[in-house]
């Protein structure tokens, strides 16, 4: 396992049979995974009552999800009965020092990872996490930059991508597994979403550290809502 092992938080609704796709679990193998089994509590019901009635089945479901991780995975589980999923995810992420929060979606196989690159200070952490996850995977990665039309010197995006490319190769990712693409865009969100459709997993950085109200910045929020693939949200814990 890579010396840099990020903590990845994976929320799972244990009131249902929801479970992350096995290929996504395989991609997460180099990470320390915290599986959060969250059970929704209606407003008119006390959390203690829900726990008394459903804790056994909730624990069984989250342990079943954990059993599907590849051998050797570092997985910790917990079950939380909550009225507010976002607040719970945010709190647990802080408690466990999670670098990444997974927005699970169906995926057939993880062969292509998509990383929209912006000029954020969070870029170093994003690239470190991507390099770590790719260390035990054969997946390729596309680094993509959508420059707002007329607002940016075209060479800025290319320079940004070249630097990101070099950081991944310095971290041990073979250069033939890395592609770069930059576009001048009238609508960066549309172009990111369209390009991401040809990939299996999206890795995107949040703009602010809190997920309480999904405050991820305008572009990340819209991309996550419109993505058809699993999304790994890299937290900006230095913000």
TrEMBL record:
Lineage top rank: taxon: Archaea
UspA domain segment(s): 111-235
InterPro entries, A to Z? Universal_stress_UspA, UspA
Concerning SUPFAM superfamilies, the annotation shows: Adenine nucleotide alpha hydrolases-like (SSF52402)
User: What Pfam families would the database entry show?
Assistant: Usp
In the record, the note on similarity to other proteins reads: Belongs to the universal stress protein A family.
Protein name, per record: Universal stress protein
Its lineage opens with: Archaea, Methanobacteriati, Methanobacteriota, Stenosarchaea group, Halobacteria
């Amino acid at each position: 396992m890579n010396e840099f092992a990020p903590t990845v938080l994976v929320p799972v609704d244990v009131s249902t049979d929801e479970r992350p796709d096995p290929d996504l679990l395989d991609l997460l193998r180099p990470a320390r995974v915290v599986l959060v089994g969250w059970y929704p509590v209606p407003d008119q019901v006390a959390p203690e009552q829900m726990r008394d009635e459903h804790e056994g089945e909730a624990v069984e479901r989250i342990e079943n999800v954990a059993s599907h991780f590849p051998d050797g995975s570092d997985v910790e589980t917990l079950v939380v009965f909550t009225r507010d999923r976002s607040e719970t995810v945010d709190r647990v992420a802080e408690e466990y020092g999670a670098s990444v929060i997974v927005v699970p979606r169906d995926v057939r196989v993880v062969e292509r990872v998509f990383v929209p690159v912006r000029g954020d200070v969070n870029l170093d952490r994003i690239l470190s996490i991507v390099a770590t996850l790719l260390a035990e995977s054969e997946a390729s990665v596309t680094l993509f930059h959508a420059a707002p039309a007329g607002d940016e010197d075209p060479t800025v995006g290319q320079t940004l991508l070249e630097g990101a490319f070099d950081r991944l190769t310095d971290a041990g990712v073979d250069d033939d597994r890395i592609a770069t693409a930059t576009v001048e865009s009238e609508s960066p969100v549309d172009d990111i979403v369209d390009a991401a459709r040809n990939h299996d997993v999206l890795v995107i950085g949040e703009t602010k550290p809190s997920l309480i109200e999904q405050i991820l910045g305008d572009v990340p929020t819209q991309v996550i809502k419109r993505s058809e693939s699993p999304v790994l949200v890299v937290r900006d814990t230095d913000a």
